[in-house]
Amino acid sequence: MSDFLFAPPSPPSVPIARGGLYAVHRIYCVGRNYAEHAREMGHDGREPPFFFAKPADAVIVGGASTPYPPQTADLHPEVELVVAIGQGGEDIAVGSALEHVYGYAVGLDMTRRDLQAAAKKAGRPWAMAKGFDHSAPMSSIEPVTQIGHPDKGCITLSVNGAPQQRGDLADQIWGVAETIAYLSQFVGLRAGDLIMTGTPAGVGPVARGDVLEAEIAGVGSLRTIIV
């Protein structure tokens, strides 16, 4: 007989490109990690990285549709490289940080921009602007053993076939190894943690019926429809 009040839900997961499932533990996101995007959001310079979180069950996989969330009139997708941690640790050194990576995926950080702007103005957390239901569409995960560690290459998002965002992984202010090392000073990373590494410039609103297509060279692609 179980001591649980109700049956625990199945763990959220992301498909692995070569077969199997990656169980998601936590989702961390890096803010303003591309210089041009930082400038378009009103910031400049190489600040220390900062992080916010999404619920593990915010992931949408397999090309499923993305519901337009309530309480917003300004929904923005942000294309991002997603790092899948395969080996945990604390106070990880930059030089060994990539040893903790299992693989990479393409992700969209869905953002209720109007709520985020209001939270910034009031000095309040971004939780409801970033960490809502269905806020993390993702592609399957490509293992490092197959693609290595991408540190350059085109990262794009198109909406209804029209380009919206375009950048290069080489333009990241903080690289993957630096990001992992810095984050591990604050939390003990664990296998199953995903890190969304920031978005290039060009963010803008989408509406119901829009088709989003994201791609990162050497990593993969992602397609979803806003419904």
TrEMBL record:
Coiled coil: none
Residues covered by the Fumarylacetoacetase-like C-terminal domain: 27-226
Protein name per its UniProtKB record: Fumarylacetoacetate hydrolase family protein
Record's keyword annotation contains Methyltransferase: no
Gene Ontology molecular-function annotations: hydrolase activity
InterPro entries named among the record's database cross-references: Fumarylacetoacetase-like_C, Fumarylacetoacetase_C_sf
Stored SUPFAM superfamilies: FAH
Top-rank taxon, per record: Bacteria
Record organism: Devosia rhodophyticola
Alphabetically ordered keywords of this record: Hydrolase, Metal-binding
